[in-house]
Write a structure and sequence with these properties.
The complex is a heterotrimer.
Chain A lengths: L3 E5 L3 H13 L3 E5 L2 H11 L3 E5 L7 H10 L7 E6 L4 H9 L4 E4 L4 H20 L1
Parallel strand pairs in A: 1-2, 1-3, 3-4, 4-5
Chain B lengths: L1 H28 L8 H8 L5 H14 L5 H11 L4 H11 L5 H8 L4 H34 L19 H17 L10 H29 L3 H10 L1 H4 L11 H17 L1 H9 L6 H17 L2 H11 L10 H8 L3 H41 L11 H26 L6 H12 L3 H9 L5 H18 L1 H4 L8 H6 L20 H23 L4 H11 L13 E2 L5 H12 L1 H15 L11 H15 L1 H12 L3 E2 L1 H20 L4 H59 L5 H33 L6 E5 H19 L1 E7 L6 E5 H18 L5 E10 L2 E8 L6 H6 L21 H11 L3 E6 L5 E8 L5
Parallel strand pairs in B: 4-6
Antiparallel strand pairs in B: 1-2, 3-5, 6-7, 7-9, 8-9
Helix pairs in contact in B: 1-9, 2-9, 2-14, 3-7, 3-15, 3-17, 4-12, 4-14, 6-7, 6-17, 7-8, 7-17, 7-18, 7-19, 7-21, 8-17, 8-18, 9-15, 9-16, 9-17, 10-15, 12-13, 13-17, 15-16, 16-17, 17-18, 17-29, 21-24, 26-27, 26-28, 28-29, 30-31, 31-32, 32-36, 33-34, 34-36
Chain C lengths: L2 H18 L13 E2 L2 E2 H22 L3
Antiparallel strand pairs in C: 1-2
Classes of the chains: A alpha/beta, B mainly alpha, C mainly alpha.
Chain lengths: 129, 919, 64
């Protein structure tokens, strides 16, 4: 069974590119375009990894991150923050709230894929062990 | 019996004038101006034709033939250039809220009270002969008609009830009339609509009366002009009036008089009042520049026939040629026509007296007495008191004094002098304004000191060569003085300075006075250094077409002024109601609540000064404002200039030890400059912080499209065997996002330029009706594509012309239209554009029937990079900069942009722009 | 008429007016004879005056 990736971003074209990349890498993909949708999809789709944009309409990325990390049932879920804001403060905040990685836009597709693979493999290892 | 009828008709006529004036004011209060059209404007300029024209032209023609004409040829020639000269004067006066010609000069040369006072003195002294001319003409015509029919056969008995002479009665009557009529209102910047309407009416009456007597003489007494000219040609003394010769007028005098009247039409206080201050719309100048000369031509058509007829009919009877106009119908026994002619003469004289006394009394109160009273601390603006009534009282007293001076001049000088020769003395006086006025409007280098020196020099020469010499006939100066000069010094002879003998007295005076005047003005200006305020005013005047009414340089501010102190100052001069209205307007325009603001901004202080200028003139207003504010304003330029100067000072000090005193002065200025720089630095830091925020937002917005572009570029690069349709889809996204990036960068740059004030504005008259039509047409493609219906409704009853940058306003319209189309529902969308003129503003609405904008969104959509709309439906296209840019553009032209919306019921975006003049 | 051309025409008209209403040109007509019952000087002055006004009208009011 392929690993499941949830893409959360409000920019339609960025979503299309991420969707293409994830599907090409063989993952099952779901999409959320705002905070509320993201929370709902996390519950229903139960992804292994979330690509999470920070600047979202409604509930923002940091709020979602915080919420997921407070729920024990999502303990194994990897979360990669994706945002245009590349300031040090933001990176620190994201990591402090429990993000697994931080990628700034514009990103290199190869780096992104490598990062996604790394986290999914790590998770699978912990599961199989 | 006839005398009684005559007085009754004259009083009735003056009553009609009052009625017209009140009707004009009544219409103006209701916003339905009687005078806002070029025809009334041109007719009101007919105030140029006074008793001089009405009675004096015929008198002049009887002795000098064509010598009466240059006075009308000069204005005709200058009128050709009105579109440049007069329009500039009108614009400057409107922008700077000028109230009189003295105020104009004072304001141009650094709001100088001394210059304003000097111009006032010259104007009053210069116009007094002119007023005496009107008194002379009205009393002579009155006496002639009063004694009808005896006056046709015997020498006239003077009308002198109560042992006062006729002229004194006329003086009392006219003074009372001018006080009642002219000094009714306090505010002098608002147009005197009633006055203008009455003056235009008087122009019609005097023209009709003069044409009536012209037709009567030419076609009833004679068989047309051919007969008159034919009979005259047979008589050598009359035939010589047909040509230019030694007995009539020579080429030099003709040229000088033409030149003199060119200046008079621009600078006579009453012409300045009518043509410049009462102008409602600059475009009216177009029609006036051919209509007014046409008026002059028509009123002069019968002058020569009447003069020749008079000379032939009164060959054996005593009759002053200045009274032929009245004498001819009387001699023919046509009483009704004589009465009409008398009323025509009365209208010519009263129009001059009214407008000149209004203009002169305003000058006396605003530019002479108020600064004096403020300086002597008799008037203290910082104390409570009703100063409006003080100003009004000063104006009324000034009218009475000016009229009495006119009467004394009449008594003191030769009453038998021809009307035209008296009038020309006044013309030559106001011509003294020409060098520093025209210099001030076209040359930035003219200084206050230059203007003062030139005016004083010119005025003294004028006084010596014309009015002083005119007192000769009543013994003011002895014969010897004229013939051999004072103390026998030949080259000081008033009519032959430096032995110049080839010119007639008027041309002689004009030549020397203008020579020393212009010479002193230019030389002293070049040798003196203008103050910062002068430099600022110079460019405000010379480059007036580059400024719009409210675009002031932002001044740095040292010291404090409270809104409250400004408010109470304004209340004392403008009254509570108007102050409230003006401040509310200001707050509304600038988006601040002045009731909740303590500190006045520099812009507000300047606005208050401009409002006061409208009541008391620029120079007085500056003194009054300074009394509340105490502190000096320094402009950025001045700070830089001071710094520049201090470096020069260091160089001086090394070379010249004795200049320590000057140095101390400079160091004080340096201290002031340091303070200014500190303030400037704080402001810069604040700006820097704002800039950081802006840059961080901009980079975020730039990264978004860049992310898509890079991601798809890499995908396409790494997947060379991608299916064709996918490939095209992805390439399409790359293109679209690239376009978005370009648009974003352009708009960021545009906004930065607007905010820095570095944008170039090409301000012209914009026909908004055409512009709206064009914008709607340009947007219809986009609307059709989405199935949105575009409708337009523009009020076409009024002209919709605003002063703005056409391309910029188009940008605003297109932005609002594209937003409206974008947020309208597809297929059933409706966008409605409407425009109306409302209370001095042009208001344009663009309404859509989209989802509407929530109350919170309404607050933020004018912020940079904030977009409205339901985000759950995905981001709307656009950069989020369109509305902030539009708002900046509208604000630049003194208007504002706002939105009204209820969620679910669509949104209406509206903007308003000020309509030109006080329409 | 182009707007900026209009300004140039006005200046030309002003200069021409100054010449026509001045000497030495007027000296050419400075004769006591009558033409159509009117002295030549008067006829000249008033017709030139009328023409100048007419041209001012033309420059301002004619559209393109």
């Amino acid at each position: 069974m392929p690993a499941k990736v949830l893409i959360v971003d409000d920019e339609a074209n960025i979503v299309i590119s991420l969707e293409f990349l994830m599907e090409q890498a063989g993952y099952a993909v779901a999409i959320a375009r705002n905070g509320d949708e993201a929370i709902e999809k996390i519950e229903s789709f139960r992804p292994d990894l979330v690509l999470l944009d920070v600047m979202l309409p409604g509930v923002n990325g940091f709020d979602i991150l915080q919420r997921v990390r407070q729920q024990p049932e999502h303990r194994g879920m990897a979360i990669i923050m994706l945002t245009a804001k590349g300031r040090e403060v933001e990176v620190t905040k994201g990591l402090a709230l429990g993000a697994d990685a931080y990628i700034t836009k514009p990103f290199s597709t190869r780096d992104l894929l490598a990062e996604v693979r790394r986290h999914l493999n790590a998770n699978h290892e912990t599961f199989t062990d | 019996m006839f005398g009684g009828v005559m007085i009754a008709v004259a009083l009735l006529y003056l009553g009609v004038l009052f009625a017209i004036a009140y009707y004009g004011d009544w219409r103006a209060e209701r916003g339905r101006s009687l005078i806002n059209n070029p025809y009334v404007y041109a007719l009101s300029m007919g105030v140029y034709c006074t008793a001089w024209t009405y009675y004096g032209s015929v008198g002049r023609a009887a002795s000098s033939g064509l010598g009466f004409l240059p006075i009308y040829i000069g204005p005709t020639l200058i009128a050709i250039l009105w579109w440049f000269v007069l329009r500039k004067m009108v614009r400057i006066s409107r922008v700077n809220r000028i109230t009189t010609i003295a105020d104009f000069m004072a304001s141009r040369y650094g709001k100088s009270t001394s210059l304003g006072g000097l111009v006032t003195v010259i104007a009053v002294v210069g116009i007094i002969p002119y007023i005496s001319l009107q008194l002379n003409a009205v009393s002579a015509s009155f006496t002639l008609l009063w004694n009808y029919p005896q006056s046709m056969s015997a020498a006239a008995e003077p009308f002198a009830p109560g042992s006062l002479d006729t002229a004194l009665w006329v003086t009392f009557g006219m003074a009372a009339f001018a006080i009642l009529f002219g000094a009714r209102h306090l505010d002098v910047t608002e147009h005197h609509e009633g006055l203008v309407a009455a003056i235009a009416f008087e122009s019609i009456v005097k023209l009709a009366a003069f044409l009536a007597v012209g037709f009567f003489v030419t076609f009833a007494l004679f068989n047309g002009p051919a007969e008159i000219f034919g009979l005259a040609a047979a008589d050598p003394t009359l035939a010589q009036l047909f040509t230019f010769n030694a007995e009539t007028i020579n080429a030099s005098e003709w040229g000088w008089l033409t030149f003199l009247s060119m200046l008079a039409i621009l600078f006579l206080p009453r012409q300045f009042q009518m043509a410049v201050l009462e102008n409602m719309d600059e475009t009216h100048i177009r029609k006036a520049s051919w209509l007014f000369p046409l008026y002059l031509l028509v009123i002069n058509l019968f002058v020569l026939p009447i003069a020749l007829a008079g000379l032939m009919i009164f060959r054996d009877r005593p009759m002053d040629a200045d009274l032929f106009v009245l004498g001819l119908p009387m001699a023919a026994g046509s009483e009704t026509l004589a009465l009409f002619v008398f009323i025509g003469g009365l209208s010519a004289a009263t129009s001059m007296v009214i407008v000149d006394t209004v203009a002169l009394s305003t000058m006396v109160s605003n530019d002479l007495m108020t600064p004096l009273l403020l300086k002597l601390r008799i008037l203290r603006p910082s104390e409570r008191g009703d100063y409006g009534s003080v100003l009004l009282a000063i104006r009324r007293i000034a009218i009475a004094v000016i009229m009495m001076l006119g009467y004394f001049y009449y008594l003191l000088t030769d009453t038998s002098a021809s009307l035209v020769s008296i009038g020309l003395i006044s013309f030559a006086a106001v011509a003294q304004f020409a060098p520093s006025f025209l210099g001030g409007v076209y040359w930035k280098g003219g200084t206050r000191l230059g203007a003062l020196t030139g005016l004083i020099a010119g005025f003294l020469v004028w006084g010596y060569t014309l009015p002083l010499a005119a007192t000769h006939s009543i013994g003011g100066v002895p014969d010897d003085f004229l013939m051999n000069g004072p103390w026998g010094i030949g080259w000081l002879r008033p009519h032959n300075l430096f032995g110049l003998t080839d010119l007639d007295p008027v041309a002689h005076s004009l030549f020397w006075s203008l020579l020393v005047n212009a010479g002193a003005y230019v030389v002293v200006s070049l040798a003196s250094r203008p103050s910062v305020l002068e430099q600022g005013q110079a460019s405000r005047f010379v480059d007036v077409f580059d400024y719009s009414a409210d675009s002031d340089v932002v001044f740095l501010w040292r010291g404090t002024a409270t809104v409250e102190s400004l408010r109470s100052l304004l209340e004392r001069f403008l009254g509570a109601a108007r102050t409230e209205r003006e401040l509310n307007d200001y707050g509304h325009r600038h988006g601040i609540d002045l009731r909740k603001t303590l500190q006045a901004t520099p812009e507000l202080v300047q606005h208050a000064e401009r409002l006061l200028s409208g009541v008391m003139g620029a120079a007085s207003a500056r003194v009054a404002i300074a009394s509340v504010v105490q502190e000096e304003r320094l402009s950025m330029d001045e700070v830089l200039r001071l710094l520049d100067e201090t470096s020069q000072v260091r160089a001086y000090s090394r070379q010249l030890e004795q200049r320590t005193q000057q140095l101390e002065q400079k160091s004080r200025e340096l201290e002031a400059a340091t303070g200014e720089l500190r303030a400037a630095n704080e402001r810069l830091q604040e700006l820097d912080r704002l800039k950081d925020d802006f840059i961080s937002t901009v980079t975020h917005e730039l990264r978004t499209p860049l992310t898509s572009i890079r991601a798809f570029a890499e995908i396409l690069h790494d997947n060379p065997d991608l299916a064709a349709d996918r490939r095209i889809h992805f390439l399409g996204i790359v293109l679209k996002e690239s376009e978005r990036l370009t648009r974003l960068i352009n708009q960021v740059l545009d906004l930065a330029k607007l905010e820095a004030g570095a944008a170039e504005w090409n301000t012209i008259e914009v026909d908004m009706r055409a512009l709206i039509g064009e914008a709607v047409k340009a947007s219809s493609g986009m609307a059709d594509e989405k199935g949105v219906q575009l409708t337009v409704e523009v009020d076409d009853a009024q002209p919709m012309t605003v002063w703005a940058d056409r391309d910029r306003v188009m940008q605003v319209m297109l932005n609002l239209l594209s937003n409206a189309v974008k947020f309208s529902p597809a297929k059933r969308g409706e966008v409605h554009v409407s425009a109306e003129c409302n209370d001095g503003w042009l208001v344009v609405h663009v309404a859509d029937n989209g989802e509407g904008i929530s109350a919170e969104d309404q607050k933020i959509i004018f912020d940079k990079f904030r977009q409205g709309g339901d985000r759950r439906l995905g981001k709307p296209q656009g950069t989020g900069l369109g509305l902030p840019i539009s708002a900046q553009i509208v604000a630049h032209f003194g208007g504002r942009l706002w939105v009204e919306s209820e969620p679910g019921r669509g949104a209406t975006f509206s903007f308003m722009l000020p309509l030109p003049a006080d329409r | 008429m182009l707007p900026n051309r209009r300004g140039q025409w006005l200046i030309v008209l002003f200069v021409a007016g100054c010449l026509l209403f001045g000497f030495p040109l007027m000296a050419l007509f400075n004769q006591p004879q009558l033409a159509v019952g009117v002295p030549i000087t008067v006829l000249y002055l008033f017709s030139i005056w009328f023409v100048v006004i007419g041209l001012t009208w033309l420059i301002h009011e004619r559209r393109n």
